[in-house]
Design goal:
The protein is α+β, with helices and mostly antiparallel strands and 207 residues long. The protein is built from six helices and nine strands, in the order H-H-E-E-H-E-H-E-H-E-E-H-E-E-E. The chain is 29% helix and 30% strand.
């Protein structure tokens, strides 16, 4: 039976539309970083190469190589960790050109450096792109976090973040870093803005 992250890891990927505490374990990712407006062509290109790598791993058995421990699974959703440049932090309004980001796609536990190297070689042969050389394979562990499902336009996220910050304050917690994570559950190309679903997450600690 195919592994479905939406069903098996509901606590991480299908939170309620209200703030909640969660502990996020160490996870493996394909990542690529950058600076600037997420509406840019460069950002779209980076998403494209991430998915090329993710599907190269997913389809390996059909290409004649089955990694040790491989199992059928649904490719994980796109995620992003967001911050601002120092100049951006000084601005009274959000300047998207001053955004710093690392976008990523989680990988199953069976993925090793050897698997990554094989996937990269396959993608470079079939779908070469200069940005492939910027992709890294690493782990990330959020640990104790507050998260919430945001439904609607990305531009309306500040209200959801406000609710999360109120929850953090009420529960004697504090945000570890203003960098936050977003998990994109909807295809922005096919979904109305009012129906977009995004998991928003802050890393927190006790005061």
């Amino acid at each position: 039976m195919k592994y479905e992250w939406r069903k098996t890891e509901k606590n991480l990927y299908v939170p309620k539309a209200e703030p909640q505490l969660v502990t996020v374990p160490e996870q493996k990712f394909f990542m690529i970083s950058g600076k600037g407006n997420p509406n840019s062509e460069e950002f779209a290109e980076k998403i494209g190469v991430l998915y090329s790598m993710a599907y190269a791993v997913r389809m390996m058995p059909k290409k004649g190589y089955t990694p040790e421990g491989y199992f059928e699974y649904t490719v994980y959703p796109l995620e992003g960790v967001w911050d601002l440049t120092e100049q951006g932090k000084l601005s009274d309004s959000l300047d998207k050109d001053e955004l710093l980001y690392t976008i990523m796609i989680r990988q199953p536990e069976f993925v090793t450096r050897e698997v990554v190297d094989i996937a990269l070689e396959n993608v470079k042969k079939k779908k070469p792109h200069p940005l492939l050389d910027e992709i890294t394979f690493d782990t990330m562990e959020d640990g104790l976090s507050v998260q919430m499902m945001h439904v609607g336009s990305y531009d309306d996220e500040p209200e959801t973040f406000r609710q999360m910050k109120d929850f953090i304050e009420e529960n004697d917690l504090e945000i570890k870093t203003l960098r936050h994570r977003e998990i994109y559950l909807s295809d922005v190309r096919k979904t109305e803005k009012s129906k977009l679903k995004t998991v928003l997450r802050y890393r927190v600690q006790n005061k």
